[in-house]
Design brief:
The chain has helices at about 1-10, 50-60, 110-130, and strands spanning about 15-25, 30-40, 45, 65, 85-90, 95-105. It is an alpha+beta fold. It has a six-stranded antiparallel beta sheet, sandwiched between helices.
Length: about 130
Amino acid sequence: MELIAKRLHEKVTRYNWTGFYLIDPADPGYLVVGPYAGSFTPNARIPLTTGLCGAAATSGKVVVVQDVSKDPRYLAGSSLVKSEIVVPIFVNKQLAAELDIESYFADTFGKSERDFIEGCAKVIADYLGKE
C-alpha cells in the first residue's frame, strides 16, 4: 500500500494526496488512515457515517466527486482539494480498506482515471486476500 500510494502521488501530477484508509480492527465502525503520500495531513480517523470515505464504505461502491464544493458529504482534509475518488477494497466480500485520491483540480477523475484507480485497488485486494 505504501509503495502504491507513494508512486501514484509522485507519478500522476494531478493526484495531490493518495492513500489508504483501513477498517479499524478495534472498532469496525471507523476507518483509520493507513499508508499515504501527499501535501497535507489527512483525517486520522473517520466514522463510517461521515464523508466520502464513509459513503464508499457504507455503500460498497466507488464514490467520484468532480467538485467537492458541491457535495455536502465532503470532509475536508485541505481547502485546496477540488475533486476526490474513493474506491472500496474488499477481501473475502468484507470491506478491508479504501483507496482515496484527492486532487487540487476539478474534474480529475474521468472514466479512464476511474478504471486505472480501480485497477490499483484490485491489486491491493488480491494481495490482502493472499495474506
